[in-house]
Specification:
By secondary structure, this protein is of the alpha+beta class. It has 2 domains: 204 residues, no CATH class; 142 residues, no CATH class. It is built from 17 helices and 12 strands. The strands form 2 sheets. The chain has a 6-stranded mixed β-barrel. Strands 7-8 form a two-stranded antiparallel sheet. Helix 11 packs across helix 13. The longest helix is centred in the N-terminal third of the chain and has 43 residues. It is elongated, with a radius of gyration of 33 Å.
Length: 427
């Protein structure tokens, strides 16, 4: 008796070897080889571009978020809770909340600034000298001068910190004098009267965003309270967290610490429109780049259709030798999937390498073209940022592979349904 011959399991070695042989370039199948090469290149470029776009958008959001929130804080408290002595108790309770790294009372108001024949408007922010030094985004970005002596003297003294662009427009530097005029100040019988006072520039700061560097001045809190007629009260308490994305989680805890006399808002409320616009732009660009991946994967269909046509005789021979429809389907599925998988892997490598070296690439482009392709005055940043999110990279890889696998199914089913008799009749 003869032993039973077991059929080969799905995706066995012979199926894989036949599939890979079909993809090898031959002179008579040069058209198939050319289309498969084009499909590989298109998938590689589409995946790489999608990763680059998503990483650059992530980088923009992260950099702008760090700069905006580093300057403005993550949460703010306003209301009657800012009046002493209640404010000191509120500050103690807020600082005791896990996740809060800084809580600073501040006064913020507009003032008229006069320098060397120049006049401009500015936003004056009053903070205690200790809080200014603890705000690393300011203390670590002193461009000229220093914080030495800031806050010394009666009512905090008369030293101020000025944004470097504002100082340049006024023509002043450390040691020079700026005259500030407050629209509200000392109370008289006819109401509050404007107050003007000369201040000495202790230093200039640059946070890398022109909208802040050209319009903000830092002043000791006690001096700001006197200058703007605030008495002993503050305009708000600025809170910074160890993680800005936890603001929604910590907001109820902060509100409980503040009590019913205070109103707590977070950066999502204040900057919601701005970051929503960034998110919409990021989503739109991702969808557009995703369509490129689908278009690139669709080229696999034309490649396999030509391959099925050229290999119809081979299909008929395999069928007569006992290969089932499932084996034929898997052979052509493997052929198309190999193009998609290799293109996806190459695209991942290209996109990741591009993002990791984007600053060097920017420098090469600027050197070769002799132009500045990324103007810091327009984009607020000195270089193109790129932040790789590995979860998104995994999603891109899965999306590209899925699109490639789906694209192989129609021609693979066509090959499996091919009648061997009809295929051999016309050979």
């Amino acid at each position: 008796m003869t032993a039973d011959i077991k059929p080969a399991p799905p995706f066995s070695f012979w199926e894989r070897s036949v599939a890979m042989r079909y993809l090898r370039a031959k002179r008579k199948n040069g058209g198939v080889a050319l289309i498969s090469t084009i499909s590989f290149i298109l998938i590689m470029l589409a995946v790489a571009i999608l990763i680059i776009v998503m990483s650059v958008m992530n980088g923009f959001r992260s950099e702008l978020l760090d700069r905006i929130l580093g300057f403005n804080g993550h949460m703010h408290v306003t209301g009657a809770a800012l009046i002493e002595p209640e404010r000191d108790l509120v500050l103690q309770r807020i600082r005791a909340i896990p996740g809060v790294i800084q809580a600073a009372p501040l006064v913020e108001a507009q003032a008229l600034v006069q320098g060397r024949g120049q006049t401009s408007g500015a936003i004056v922010r009053g903070m205690t000298p200790e809080d200014v030094r603890a705000t690393k985004f300011i203390a670590d970005n002193i461009k000229s001068g220093s914080l030495q002596g800031f806050g010394d003297g009666d009512y905090g003294g008369d030293l101020i910190l000025v944004g470097d662009r504002l100082a340049a427009s006024m023509g002043v530097g450390p040691g020079d004098t700026l005259t500030l005029t407050s629209p509200t100040g000392a109370e008289t019988a006819f109401g509050s009267a404007p107050v003007s006072k000369a201040f000495t520039v202790a230093g200039t700061f640059s946070v890398g965003m022109s909208q802040y560097d050209e319009s903000f001045i830092y002043m000791p809190l006690a001096q700001a309270q006197l200058f703007f007629g605030r008495g002993t009260s503050a305009d708000q308490i600025e809170i910074k967290l160890d993680d800005p994305d936890r603001s929604a989680e910590l907001l109820p805890l902060v509100q409980n610490a503040v009590g019913a006399d205070g109103v707590v808002t977070d950066w999502r409320n204040q900057e919601q429109a701005y970051f929503n616009a960034l998110e919409v732009e990021r989503t739109t660009m991702t969808l557009i780049m995703g369509l490129l991946v689908l278009i690139a994967a669709a080229n696999i269909i034309s490649c396999l259709i030509m391959l099925v046509k050229n290999k119809s005789r081979d299909i008929a021979v395999l069928r007569t030798l006992g290969a089932g429809q499932g084996a034929i389907l898997r052979i052509f599925f493997l052929s198309g999937s190999a193009i998609g998988a290799l293109g996806t892997l190459a695209g991942l490598a290209l996109g990741i390498l591009f993002c990791l070296n984007i600053q060097h690439i920017q420098g090469i482009v600027e050197w070769a073209t002799g132009t500045q392709v990324f103007n810091a005055e327009i984009y607020f940043l000195s270089h193109i940022p790129a932040k790789i999110d590995w979860r998104e990279v995994g999603f891109v890889a899965a999306f590209s592979l899925t699109a490639s696998f789906v694209a192989t199914l129609p021609p693979a089913f066509q090959a499996a349904r091919l009648d061997p008799v009809e295929a051999l009749r016309f050979e």
